[in-house]
Amino acid sequence: MTRVAHTRAEREANLRSAADQREHERQAVAAHYEHSPEIFSLVLDSRLAYATGVYEHAGEDLETAQARKYARIAAKLDIRPGQRVLDVGCGWGSNLLYLAQHTEGVFQGITLSAQQREEALRRARAWGVADRVQIDVCHVEDLNLRPESFDAVLFSGSIVHMHNRPAVHQMVGEVLKPGGRVLISDCYFPVQPRGDRDSAATEYIFVEALGYCRLIGLAEELQLMERAGLDILHVEDLTRHYAQTLAHWIDNVRKHRRTIDAMAPGFAAVLQQYMTVARMSFARRTALEYMILATKGAPTVDPGAWPIAQKGGRS
């Protein structure tokens, strides 16, 4: 498959060796997330989801929308007692710990940030699920996992930071058991370019703010998944939901600017600037947000019968 480089960051990544790119991601991406969790607690929901929520209407609050998103992921992954789940780019544990609290699965998460790992494990202990949770600081391509050792794999707001997508999907296809599920919730470019992908604004988000991002087309992601032996079950467009989520985050940054700057001078401006550009991109659909569910072999659930919650509580 011919790899098309959409941005300067991606073209530069193509010039690096695979090992050099992994090291670049390990350092550049982690830098954003190594800021104090206290800062992000002022901006995000109470579980610290750094990804889109799911809204029923324009006036809905962030906490409710993120609770609905957690329930949506739980319904789609359908974790049964004793099943093993890998959360790649688990952040501060938002989805991983929700699933641990609401299912009887066993969970392994990885992150590039020591700060995120420490906070996620602290929450796991506080919420009584630490005995079923393991979190490591690790790049996804450095994982050494047994074939067919997981029942589900989750990427929420994380695969965008991974340049070598073919290797990532190949790993997923190998580690999933027959009937295993993979869920991705992340950002994509439309195939037909809309706007300037080499703009200073794009560069600011992809490099200055977030370290490294690679947006590809939805069809390319799906093809890579299929090449890894996965069958696509369901795709839904959450683009407008991400624009709404970002609006809430921006309001929170503005509200807490002085507190954030006291802890990390200048970081409030970074957050507000990149989130503002991102919100405009999703509102204009120059960038898109999708949730993808795929399975290895025959699905264990009926897509037409998912008990997806329509109203999110504050769990």
Gyration radius over CA = 18 Å
CATH topology: Rossmann fold
Order of helices and strands: HHHHEHEHEEHEHHEHHHE
What is the percentage of strand-forming residues? 15-25%
Taking pLDDT < 50 over at least 5 consecutive residues as the criterion, the unreliable ranges are 307-315
Residue share in helix: 40-55%
The largest pleated sheet is described as: 7 strands, mixed
CATH architecture: 3-Layer(aba) Sandwich
**CATH-defined superfamily:** Vaccinia Virus protein VP39
The domain tally reads 1
Label the overall shape: globular
With strands numbered from the N-terminus, the spatial order across the biggest sheet is: 3-2-1-4-5-7-6
Structural class: alpha/beta
Number of helices: 12
Reading off the top of the CATH hierarchy, the class is best stated as Alpha Beta
The overall pLDDT, averaged over residues, is 93
Distance between the termini: 43 Å
Number of strands: 7
List the keywords.
12 helices; lipid metabolism; 315 residues; alpha/beta; seven-stranded mixed sheet; 44% helix; disordered C terminus; Rossmann fold
Task: Give a description of the structure.
Residues 39-301 form the Polyketide synthase-like methyltransferase domain. Belongs to the CFA/CMAS family. Pfam families: CMAS. The protein has 315 residues and is α/β, with parallel strands linked by helices. The chain has one domain: Rossmann fold, CATH 3.40.50. Helix content is 44%, strand content 16%. It has 12 helices and 7 strands. The chain has helices at 8-15, 18-33, 37-41, 62-77, 94-102, 114-126, 165-175, 200-209, 218-227, 239-255, 257-263, 267-284; strands at residues 84-88, 106-111, 133-137, 150-156, 176-188, 231-237, 288-295. A 7-stranded mixed β-sheet has the order 3-2-1-4-5-7-6, sandwiched between helices. Strand 4, helix 7 and strand 5 form a beta-alpha-beta unit. Helix 7 (165-175) crosses helix 9 (218-227). The radius of gyration is 18 Å and the shape is globular.
